[in-house]
Design brief:
7% strand; 8 strands; transmembrane helix (chains A, B, C); 20 helices; Rossmann fold; endosome (chains A, B, C); ion transport (chains A, B, C); copper (chains A, B, C); homotrimer
Chain lengths: 461, 461, 461
């Protein structure tokens, strides 16, 4: 800007100073909230409504006109109306020609209609440039100013310039626009606010299934078996003892499942001799939810830690301990320290502590604000090197916990092995295969494949 | 950009290539730091100073001129001078006419002057376009490059274009501008850096008050009472036992206070039959500090967990345990397991663990970077569904802990009930009222009211 | 935008609607991934390649031409080729004149070449405007859309307008451009993806060194000494007991080292009587890694907490406890409660809990998303006030733990004092000096110096 123009502008502040007028069709909650926020941000706002009576709820500085009149006042029209009423726009097609129509609507169900609301709008008013935006923002959040949840506004549309205009408004309102491409993306954007943790579904259902299985498994071994054979009532094991068998088992299995797909992928790439063919669909999906699997595993590990640490203050444990000591005293016995036991006990505890510590570290680095501050090399170092170290420590923790009980027949009740033996299967497979894969004879070709080399190049470049 | 223009530009790189010169009035710490950063980002900088001698502290690439000369060189002038010296700008009014003046000043106290510094500046130099910015940034952070605290720069001003120019500079310096509206917002922006956790004041003072009350209450019951009646010195309870009574009580009460205002709001909306009337002021304020209340509750819950887990390694507890066992042994007694006690003990521990686990989950999702990555449905699911589940688990934990002690007269010393009984009052009220509110006969009208329906519509649309 | 122009535009949507064509030299992994992402974001893409046969791997909507033809189609050319092949650009110098060349290359080692790749490119094609960008982004992340690690794209270049054009593309791809200044910054930007936690190196090596020292120190005192004199095998102490001596000691020492440089800085400023002279280099570096030092200290403190809480479930501890109780019972002894011991035990536990709690709070506020939401006053309050309180609590925890053992000769084995005595040296120095520094006679001049006052002003302003 040159000084002259700057001075001129100051003399006539009202010419270039203004933002573009924005028109809002619909005076419902969302329309009003958006209008209010826009006026705050310096946009002149005109509402288009069936009745032009202003209500006290409509922001004072806004004009209320008929739809046709309001539309003529602005280049951008926000359609804050439900999809089923879009028909009324058809007669206005003439006036809306060339305008930017912003579809802010949401549906009640995922994929409720065959085409997205925004595409439907574009069909109804073919002359207009439709942009999808603002549907992820809540009216309440706009009004109260407490944007605790997302400040992100997904924007899509076929017209680049129209999209840019809408993104400028989004930015002016203090929100973050994210360009999602052409209007085809509208379906996905409309489904977004209806989603409930879609990436978490598989890990959570998997862990619920495994939890149910291991619950009944442990119930059989630890409650029903002693009740049948020894007439002892250990039903209260349901509260702590059994959960504390399930949690470590699930934590270990899920952690191993985080690293299993990477091992599969390496084997497939080695077998195919190229990295330029897509993985099977199930493997792709599995790889994309590894972070969620890992976090669910961390949740089970944390519960295991808490369940373990309360052991000494459980009424049952205090009763058992004091009974043991009393009977020792009555029998006049003083045991000497069993060094092997001391070693086993201390080392499985230490391995568990270190494994859990690294696990929490992995969890912290997966926080968005932390992972956004590391480069790729650091991210891979943490998620791969530290991740495998965690898996090794946790597997060793379980192995040492088992100690010499693996071969003891008393570990098998009704031929059922202890749960921790079952939990070791997948981690051990992952670790063994990974160990084989880092042998130079396999690691070298794998690295070359990953750098783009192909055994049977199909495409000359 | 077309290729031609691109080529032309390359031939004469110095014409369009430069950024606008920026003038800075004042060569103090902040002025120099800002100048230095601007030069790094490609802005030619000219300082306006009383004395035009350059000092070694002023960035080398900057020019130092008299105020009048410097002002003429730039369209944007940053006033890095304290408010009490603003008077010297009056004689420069002519030269400053039409310029953008950026007020970067801060005060020493909240609301120190009747009008904000920026508004005062706008009165002194009526022809200039005043923009408030940069006051939240520290000189030290600018210079050292370690912007550990906020990168956010609040900007406000009456002139849209001037504000835009300043926001472009903010962005070029690698900071994030946040448009706060007209110059009226300057007062708030100037108060911002002087604030010390304003949203946390109410939760912290409330919890300090409750802590003091429950401290003296427990002191009376647990230390003074046994001293008076049994001449026993339990003064060391002050270190762990009494804090471990206060923490769970406060955690539960504060958690219930997070959900109480929502219950009030629902009752008010049902009674009024509309959502379009403002809540009383105290309710509004209460609802806005729910997150902080919840996090303080989580802090107390975490302390409770730590205090509980160290119980077995307390010297007093080890003494009590070994004395009990010794006397058992001396009396030749072997107790049999009390299944009811085992159940009570294990289930209150399990409920506590699960409640705390969900509580921590709520805490993690309230981290800004996490809550920014979920949509509204997910945010509400976590904060409302999981939140109520946490409250139910924690209340049940306390109820089961009490067990059959509620009616035992030994629980009442000097007619004072146990602290945990007091802590149950508010949570139980919240849960009962919430349960009534989700009965269909109340939930249906409430949902309709929240969707905009009114029992006695006052405003025709 | 005026309504007229908006309508006109709609009639001829294909003129102004398009984004600028982007040319990409090189059809390797990164070039293809970037091309794919750009097409998604609405950019027409043309590849320049040695062979113009299209391969199925190249995005369908992209054209593949010879280098010369492709270059003529766009103003921006992305050089997705390795540095060693840059020579082929020399003959194209004519065509590339005035174009924006984007260097996206990375090296295999830090400072591999004397000049950065981008500067080398600028020397090879002097007529072009070279911009460094995109080198921190991974091809895999671009393709899969899972930008888990950084979305930040560092951009630098000598031509402001060229840089702006590239930054617009970065933004359109949904990434965050960070302007790093002139092309001189390219070296640093190219080194960035090769770095592995550079700020963490000093704290981690320091703590590894201290860990090794204290490990052998404790080994001597706790394993070798009793083995030599009492023939007892305590080798299993290596698993838990010795780590649990090392962790608290390191946590305390590292925490004190966080506050030591601030104390040094204050003394230097007081001595010099000015803040306008640079600190010695070692002090500057030390001050910049305080956050990392503190987080490593927190890691050790967390391990100490876990190691301490598992004490009661260690096999050795249960053996020792039951043996003590059995021998008490056999000797018919009932001990009375030692109030002093109860006080000491409970208060060092309580101090430790509170210290650890504040320490975790400090850790949480150092998360980027949290520290970005507080102002400077709040940040300083937490990091300085709460930090010193943490240091005081942790030092007191160690002092009380020692209790009356300091003077007991049994604490010295082979004249080696207990590790916790060594750990107290630095924290006590820091606290004593800090206490002296906040005495008014020193605090007042220090505050004035920090506000800019100089004892012997060297530079008149």
């Amino acid at each position: 800007m040159k000084k002259n123009s700057s001075n001129t502008m100051a003399l006539a502040p009202n010419t270039s100073n203004k933002r573009e007028t924005v028109c809002i069709f619909g005076t419902g909650d969302f329309g009003r909230a958006l209008g209010h926020k826009m006026i705050q941000s310096g946009y002149p706002v005109v509402f288009g409504s069936r009745s032009t009576q202003t209500s006290p709820l409509i922001p004072k500085d806004a004009e209320v006109l008929s739809h046709a009149e309001a539309a003529q006042k602005a280049a951008i029209i926000i359609i804050a109306i439900q999809r089923q009423h879009y028909n009324f726009l058809t007669p206005l097609a003439e006036i809306l020609h060339g305008k930017v129509l912003v579809d802010v609507s949401n549906n009640l169900k995922i994929n409720q209609y065959p085409e997205s609301n925004a595409e439907y709008l574009a069909q109804l008013v073919p002359g207009a440039k439709v942009v999808k935006a603002f549907n992820t923002v809540s009216a309440w959040a706009l009004q109260s100013g407490t944007l605790d949840a997302s400040r992100q506004v997904f924007v899509c549309g076929d017209d680049m310039e129209a999209k840019q205009m809408v993104m400028d408004i989004v930015r002016a309102l203090g929100l973050t626009p994210l360009d999602q491409g052409s209007l085809l993306a509208a379906q996905e954007i409309e489904n977004y606010p209806l989603q409930l943790f879609p990436m978490w579904k598989f890990p959570i259902f998997l862990s619920l299934g495994l939890t149910a299985f291991f619950f009944f498994y442990s119930l059989t071994r630890d409650v029903i078996y002693p009740y049948v054979y020894e007439k002892e009532d250990f039903s209260f094991f349901i509260a702590i003892s059994i959960p504390n068998r399930i949690c470590p088992v699930l934590a270990l299995i899920l952690l191993a499942l985080v690293y299993l797909p990477g091992v599969f992928a390496a084997i497939i790439q080695l077998y195919r001799g190229t990295k330029y063919r897509r993985f099977p669909d199930w493997l792709d999906k599995w790889m994309l939810c590894r972070k969620q699997l890992g976090l669910v595993a961390l949740a089970f590990a944390s519960l295991h830690v808490l369940y373990t640490l309360v052991i000494p203050i459980r009424s049952f444990v205090r009763w058992r301990t004091s009974n043991q000591i009393v009977s020792q005293a009555l029998n006049n016995v003083t045991e000497s320290l069993n060094i092997t036991n001391a070693w086993l006990s201390d080392s499985y505890l230490a391995l568990g502590i270190l494994g859990f510590f690294l696990f929490v570290l992995l969890g912290i680095t997966s926080l968005p604000s932390v992972s956004n501050n590391v480069n790729w090399r650091e991210f891979r170092f943490v998620q791969s090197k530290l991740g495998y170290l965690t898996l090794i420590l946790c597997t060793a923790h379980t192995l040492v916990y088992g100690g010499n009980r693996f071969l003891s027949p008393s570990s098998y009740r009704w031929y059922l092995p202890n749960t921790y033996m079952l939990s070791l299967i997948i981690p051990c497979i992952v670790l063994v295969v990974k160990f084989v894969l880092i042998l130079p004879c396999l690691d070298k070709p794998l690295t070359r494949i990953r750098q783009g080399w192909e055994r049977n190049p199909q495409y000359s470049e």
